[in-house]
Amino acid sequence: MPPSPASPTAPADEPTLRRHDSGPQVVDLQRRLAQLGLWTLPQRGRFDQHLDEAVQWFQAKYGVRGDPPGVYGPATRRRLESLTS
Fold it and tell me: What is the pTM of this model?
């Protein structure tokens, strides 16, 4: 399944990601969460329940507001990218 359409504030090449999405953007999300110790499973590029929970945990730990829980939208992306490379 392709990534969900980007929100109006997100650049077209930075889609909002949520459960059931897959692809290289999901691998990048998993890689960045792994840098913070929040993802220890294989980076297979599937946005499953485990990744949803990891994103929710990241959002709670770092006080991310503006995206629904478990959704990797513009606010979550900005915060995660500010902490990782």
Answer: 0.85
